[in-house]
Structure formats: structure tokens, C-alpha cells
Design brief:
Strand content of chain A: over 45%
Order of helices and strands of chain A: EEEEEEEEEEE
Number of helices of chain A: 0
Strand content of chain B: over 45%
Distance between the termini of chain B: 35 Å
Helix content of chain B: under 10%
Order of helices and strands of chain B: EEEEEEEEEE
Structural class of chain B: mainly beta
Oligomer: heterodimer
Structural class of chain A: mainly beta
Number of strands of chain A: 11
Radius of gyration of chain A: 13 Å
Helix content of chain A: under 10%
């Protein structure tokens, strides 16, 4: 059974940093690209970042480029999102999701809440 | 960016009725790289449809998707009580973008 479990969320002040983790199980982790998708309170889904299965290529939405870094540890089956210089607009539930061969998102974690507030 | 616009914003129907949800893209979605997700409060999105019309594993056949180019439709043929949720479309042709969601509520 495919499982994705996020952790690392919490309350931080503007300008601070946070690292999210997503532990994967039930599939061959290195065979799949992975994405982070966020959802601000009461809003729709917003794709944030993606990384290929090998970790060799990464992609970001424009609003986080230069502040967020996606990475993965295929030996430990963990996906990361390092978030720096956080702003109020980054407040959201962050989901990790597995990309299928055509990159729709076939499995999602339960999400981790990040709140940026002074 | 390929902007997806969903309509209606809210749909009020009764169990047993047919639901039709729309998703319009600002640019053509090549290869029908369009998916639909269901999301209930406090839960993660659940993949329903990919490739515009293919049902994901375990999804009941009352859910169907259609469309191509810029116009896509999700149809729920006979609503069950557990189908009342928010539905979002997603294009994965050019990076990833999502629609703002349609809330399907009990009338």
C-alpha cells in the first residue's frame, strides 16, 4: 500500500525557515518523480515544486523560486522541502504527492500545516 | 501559465441526481493531460480521473470524464451521499496548474 507521511510543519515568524519531510513507503521511491502542492486556508490547490526520480532535475513555481529547495534521499525514501524567507502568503497545508508516469498525482499524503505569522 | 477555470463555483443537488462539472483551460491541454480530484474537509485530494477520461484505480463507474483541448467535463451519474465534496481539475501538460474547485453540496 502506497503511503506518504508529511512532517515538519508548524508556526514560524515571517523571514524564518522550515523544512518539511515526506516519508514514502509501499512503492519503489526512486522510480517516481514527486511533487509538493499547497493549499492556503479556504483556497484551491497550488503546485509548488517537483523533483525527478533521480533527483537530478527540480522545478518550482515562480513565487517560491530562490526561497524553497526540493530534494530527496532515495536511500531513506524521504522527500524534503526546505523553505526559507517565509512570508504570510506561504501559510498553507503542504501535501507531498507521487507523480505517475504521465505526471498526474496519483497518491497524496495527508498534509502538513505551515503557518507564517508574527 | 495555463489557467484553469471551473464552473459552477457551487453546485447544489440531491442524492440520486446527475452532476456535471466543467473545467476550461486558457490554453489547449495537449494529450488530454487533465485530471480530476475529489477532496473532503481535512483530507488529501483523491485522484478520480486522469488523461481526461480514464478512471483511477477503485473509482466507481458513476464517475466519468470527457473533453479535449480547452474544455473538460466531470460527470457523476447518480450522486451518492459520500460524493458531496470539492472537485478540482488539474492540467499536467505544461508544469502543473489547478482549477479553483467546485463545491458539490447537498440541496
Amino acid at each position: 500500500e502506497v503511503q506518504l507521511l508529511e512532517s515538519g510543519g508548524g508556526l514560524v515568524q515571517p523571514g524564518e525557515s522550515l523544512r518539511l519531510s515526506c516519508e514514502a513507503s509501499g512503492f519503489t521511491f526512486s522510480n517516481h518523480a514527486m511533487s509538493w502542492v499547497r493549499q492556503a486556508p479556504g483556497k484551491g490547490l497550488e503546485w509548488v515544486s517537483a523533483i525527478t526520480g533521480s533527483g537530478g532535475n527540480t522545478y518550482y513555481t515562480e513565487s517560491v523560486r530562490g526561497r524553497f529547495t526540493i530534494s530527496r534521499d532515495n536511500s531513506e525514501n524521504i522527500l524534503y522541502l526546505q523553505m526559507n524567507s517565509l512570508t504570510d502568503d506561504d501559510t498553507a497545508v503542504y501535501f507531498c504527492a507521487r507523480e505517475a508516469s504521465h505526471p498526474y498525482l496519483d497518491y497524496w499524503g495527508q498534509g502538513s500545516l505551515v503557518t507564517v505569522s508574527s | 501559465e495555463n489557467v484553469l477555470t471551473q464552473s459552477p463555483g457551487t453546485l447544489s443537488l440531491s442524492p440520486g441526481e446527475r452532476a456535471t462539472l466543467f473545467c476550461r483551460a486558457s490554453q489547449s491541454v495537449r494529450n488530454s493531460y487533465l485530471a480530476w480530484y475529489q477532496q473532503k474537509p481535512g483530507q488529501a485530494p483523491r485522484l478520480l480521473i486522469y488523461g481526461a477520461s480514464s478512471r483511477a484505480t477503485g473509482i466507481p463507474d458513476r464517475f466519468s470524464g470527457s473533453g479535449s483541448g480547452t474544455d473538460f467535463t466531470l460527470t457523476i451519474s447518480r450522486l451518492e451521499p459520500e460524493d458531496f465534496a470539492v472537485y478540482s481539475c488539474h492540467q499536467y501538460d505544461t508544469k502543473h496548474t489547478f482549477g479553483q474547485g467546485t463545491r458539490l453540496e447537498i440541496k
